[in-house]
Structure prediction request, 1201 residues.
Amino acid sequence: MSQSLRTPQVYRRGFRDRLVEGLRYGGGVGQWSWLIHRLTGLGILLFLVIHIVDTFFVVAFPALYDHTVAIYSGIISGLHPTVNGYYWPLRWVFRLGELGLIASVLFHALNGIRIVLFDFWPKAVNHQKTLFNAVQIVFWVIMILVTIRVVSPLFSAPEHVPVLKTASAPAMVPSR
Amino acid sequence: MNYHRFDCIIVGAGGAGMMAALESSRKVGTAVVSKLYPTRSHTGAAQGGIAAALSNLEDDSWENHAYDTIKGGDYLVDQTAAEILCKEAVDCIYELEHMGLPFDRTADGRISQRRFGGHTKPNPIYDPSATPGTDAAKPRIPVMRACHAADRTGHMILQTLYQQCIKQGVTFFDEFHMLDLIMVDGECRGIVAIEIATGQLHTFHAKSVLLATGGFGRMFKTSSNAYALTGDGPAIAYRHGLPLEDMEFYQFHPTGIYRLGILLSEACRGDGGVMFNGKGERFMDVYAPNLKDLASRDVCSRSIEQELRAGRGVNGKDYVYLDIRAETINKYKTSPTGSDVDSHWVEKRLPDIIDFARTYLGVDPIKEPMPIQPTAHYAMGGVPTDVHGRVLRDTSGEVVPGLYAAGESACVSVHGANRLGTNSLVDLIVFGRRSGKDMARYALDREFQPFPANPEAPTRMAIDSLLSRPRTEPWVKLRDEMQKTMMDDCGVYRTEERLTRARDTIAGLQVRYKNLGLQDKGTVFNTNLLEVLELGCLLDLSEATVASALARKESRGAHSREDFPNRDDTQFFGHSFATKHGDGQPTVTYKNVDVITLEKDGKTTTKYPLEIRKY
Amino acid sequence: MAKRSGAGRRVKPAGGFELLAWYWMRISGLLLVVLALGHLFITHIIYNVESINYAFVASRWAAPKTGFFWRIWDLSMISLAMFHGFNGLRQVLDEYVINPSRRVVVHTLIWSFMFALLGIGSYAILMFQKDEKYINQWELEHGRVANSSPSTSPASSVLVDSTR
Amino acid sequence: MTTTDSVRNLTLKIKRYDPERDEKPHWEEYEVEVDGHDRVLDVIQKVKWYQDETLGLRRSCAHGVCGSDAMRINGINGLACKVLVKNLQSSLLTVEPILGLPVIKDLIVDMKPFFDHYKSVMPFLINDDPPPTTERLQSPAERARFDDSTKCILCACCTTACPPFWGDQKYVGPAAIVNAHRFIFDSRDRGAAERLDILNDAQGVWRCRTVFNCTSACPRDIKVTQAIQEVKRAMLTGDIGFDPST
Prediction:
């Protein structure tokens, strides 16, 4: 077939460029939704791995499980007395992480529905931008409500996990 | 090392080249050498259609087509060749369809056809005594003969041929630029080409070589031609002392996009489009009362020039309007369907044209007329060949063994002094196929002839000296001057004075060309080098064009001499052959036109009698 | 014109792993929209994530009437999510790991990892048995958790550093 | 008609690479005088002709039908001859080679992998039945079925705008799928099953992630993603709209 020979030297992009060069490409909403879909997917998968392992503790090591989930509320217990305690920034970090997780799953789900529409509803491809806008609207409406729900308990002490024994008033209640 | 051997070498991968490759590669080893990827060839820019008398929508015959071709060419057409063209066109269209070409379809599933400039049939209700202007007074009426795929017919042909070449496993040397023919004892034994990506020279040893390198419209400033159309094939043949035929006939297409020269297909007018001058008058009424906007291209281009000279351009500028709005088509009753059309219909018939106007003019042709001006479009002339594509050595008709030419680079002569719209595609297919067949036949009866030692040496020297010379002036200055000269002094209208000036300018440029140096001294993809080499080809072809134009002291078809406004069949009914000898100006000689004669009742008549050409 | 018959408008549907994988991603994805969003809704919206502990899990998986339902829910969710997620990871990695033998290594690694995870996850869901003694012990040490009530209920406990 | 004859200055930034001199590509800037109807191609050629003849690029027809001058213009793929300067917002114009194919020189990339993908889908009519003496019949509706994909000029704008292709150049890419679509849905063709089989592969149609970069990059306005989706559905259901066995 084609006989054209290769030049002795061509510039081939390395692995890093293959991964990053495209980010400068001015693709539209399609490209960004693809990228976010991929990143949220990978993020959720990472969380899932952790989540399965910690859930395994429920059966294997109930106490370890309880100590682990308590960390989500900013409470470290069962370790050395100098470490044990309530750390409100830790609680904030986990709460924001939780928000990120919900956002990821929600976006991944909504955008997933958009992708499925492309596959099985022939006309959808002509409305990809509209569909992306719809995904965004639904996403933000839900996320605002979720944020209120998830963040509001942060302004009071952890209520439902009195992991630490009742005694005098703590010194580390988050400031309002 | 870089030596290749094939029975047939085809230079150029446009319509003619690939059609020939499909034919010859069935029987003998064939390689296509092309400076572009095949799908970049300019065949792909052809728009409106490819004519063949299929009679799918109305009665037609190949004789009608031949009549139109001969008349369109202002009788400077070899009539046997024209008959072959029109007869075989029918067969070729079916072959293309069987290859998969997606023609538009009629309601009953057959190939759709449309009207085109200069395509006519006898008027069944013709009455010589009828009042002028009525339908019955027209001896001939437009006919739907151009088979089309929207306004991308050439694109479909090019793609289909490339697809078939892939299917057949034709060998391609993509982005190899031919630099020289290897001629030994007056016969062709191969070519020298540069592999653009590496800058290495390659030699191709062959039994037969086909030049299918396309046109050379880039010698003009405003041109519908691609940058790649620099006439490398004809120029190299010319340097080897072979003649160039009918070079003075260069077609200007009437409807190029204002300033850019991008083609707006004749199909615009075939489908009912009308041209207007600055005063809003349909000026073709005056110049071609019968066919009006569907007159032949040279007629329309001259008409536009006349309007512009008379100051009737739009807004006092040098353009007129082409109007394809549905309401205009309906108002002037120019719709080919006979009934009113709507803008949806127009959009479906001419999608690319509408896209071009929107992109390049910022004009929506559905709502506004498009500014147009004539644009250099097609070379009727080229390397002279017989009907088998074999290159002629001189006016005697002797052939050069092993050398073939087809397509725009060749002059079979089926276009004469002015090509009929759509006939370029017909030419490619019909004569591309015939060349391919004859090359295979020739290669089968012949052994490889000895190949000279180092045939690439002169080419290597030329390139080395180009690369080693200091850069005295930018090469583009030469090109710009050549294009301006050719456009102004050798354009639609010509005079002795302007042509002489053009001859001298080109000669001066030839001298300066010899001292050109390059900025890019590299070997990898040196487009600087290629552009300069291409300029050399264009300069040689300009020289031949101007010399042939100076010699022809008459007006015929696309060659309009203001100082000799009439056709002169007693002195100039012949094909010009421009041949270069050494460094001076070429000599111009003439070859008789092939005329078909009929014996009837002991009297000899011509089948296509010379008539005054009116539309 | 090609003959048109209602029944014969087709070629043989293609099968093959990639087609099935593509189809699987759609089906599992749609199911996961319900299962995963539902799961998140329950654990993060209806309840507060901070209310989750052993007792909470036990109250769902080991509930006399609904326990079976929740275990089926979680089991389907984890298996769909594992296959969906790791197939997604495989597809992403395939775009960047081109070398065929490296690809085999990567595939082996990710699928082994997935099955291990699926194994321990399923084990947890299926083998869970409520340990009343542990719950009592924990509550004795840490106080009772009102994990069945929504987080909007008034605060009932005070935090103290257990070490003091 | 919009006549923007106003002349203005523009900074043209080109990603350049000379294999005989450079280790890797780098940016270079040029000042160019442009007017309103200049195409990006005109701007680049002004640099090539009047400032730096060593600049390498491919071009031929200059009006968007040959597909030679596909490049990345201000970040997105397009044909340099189909983008008009007046439609650019800024006074900075950046051009760089299309992404995903090896760079030979400056704006010129090696197109061989691209054409190899094209050839791999059997882009030609397959029908071994003896043809009739005239044309094979096809209704206007059947012809319209694949019209969109016949417009392809193989410029590679779509394939090199495709994120999965940036990662894996073994993916056949949108252009090849469009050309397969051209024949799969042609009622005269009998090779649909074979083509679907070729594309039913991790590096075939299933690598598509419906990013739509291809569709927005196509200078011929082909609905590329739609064509790919139609091929996917044909694979799933086997329905191509006609019976290729007759």
